[in-house]
Amino acid sequence: MPRVYLDNAATTKIFPEALDAMMNAYSEFGNPSSVHREGQSARKALEEARDSIASCLNCDSTELYFTSSGTESDNWAIRCAGKNGKHIITSSIEHPAVLRACEEMEKDGCRVTYLPVDNAGRVAVSDLENAFAQDTSLVSIMMANNEIGTIQNIAELARSTHANGALFHTDSVQAVGSIPVDFRALDVDLLSFSAHKFHGPKGVGGLVVRKGVDLTSFIVGGSQEFRHRAGTENVPGIIGMAKALELATESMEQASSRIRDLSDLLRNEIKKVCPQVLFHGNESYTHPGIVNLYVPGMEGEKTLLLLDVKGFACSGGAACSSKDSIVSHVLTAIGASTEEAKNSLRISIGADNTEEEIISFVSAFSSILRESLSGRK
Ligand code: PLP
After folding, report:
1. pLDDT single digits (tens) 147-156
2. Scanning 57, 115, 232, 272, which has its CA 20 to 30 A from the CA of 161?
3. Is 320 a catalytic residue?
4. Which of 7, 71, 72 to mutate to test the pocket of ligand 1 (most atoms within 8 A of CB)?
5. Closest ligand 1 atom, CA of 319?
């Protein structure tokens, strides 16, 4: 039986059209900073890609900077926008790309407030309002959580931040390409995204910086990216990213409703075979494809390995931390016990998945669970 990929929050399969666009771009070798014809042809392709991505995100092309990843974009926003003051506010369920960058700021003498979340993973605006200090420079709150899928009310959090005189950054890596992201309507100052989460290539992302925000460079060297991010641009990667985002944006409404139906099917079928299942988060404001669950007595890592042997790829939590972190900080923050935070399973559904795959996953999952739970008696 062909393998079933249910780990789309870790990464997605590249769209064939994006791969084609990249392959064509690889045969052009000009450096976009060169003045000759080869260079100018690469420059033209790069700027077309910038225009296309800017139009999908509803920002100005001059506000869009290309980076090597979502991680770099997050680091840039935190390290450079954060240093205008002595205090940063973030949430306790951010991705390590934000949390580790905040820790570095703490080493440099900055105070960081880690806001709590409710049991569905939401930040309360009142908690944010209470956290501001005279010297708060930056608030960074993710749009969609990578482990439990919780979607925050970013526009409201940004409004409160501006009323308190600080800048607002949102890590939108799990949101862009999956749910509508309108930079202008959200009225945020900084927004990070990454191509491999929306069927684009790995190793390329971007940071949108609102016009008028004076962000210093994080990577220094040449004068690329309007003198703000040094390093020769990854032209094929950027072209692949633009193609992927165009396609993801075009098909978003249809794809997300299909994906949400598959997530509902998964929840309902699992409830039938395993009524004691616990789903983390709240379905009414969750990323359409992220389902995070726990069954009392389930051993997370063992279940994952057995699912892999049976042909199903899913995850025990954040893919980036699957090797070094056993207890999920996100699940702990929503009030899960250590047992739950160690043993939960994340299934993340994508546009390619089918009902048959979900049904066969539930059948494999329930047989693994039955065997392991009876073996433990
Ligand atoms: N932020 C979130 C919410 C993510 O899920 C990820 C990747 O999993 C990142 C940041 C890092 O993005 P990248 O893999 O492009 O470095």
Report:
1. 999 999 999 9
2. 57
3. yes
4. 71
5. 8
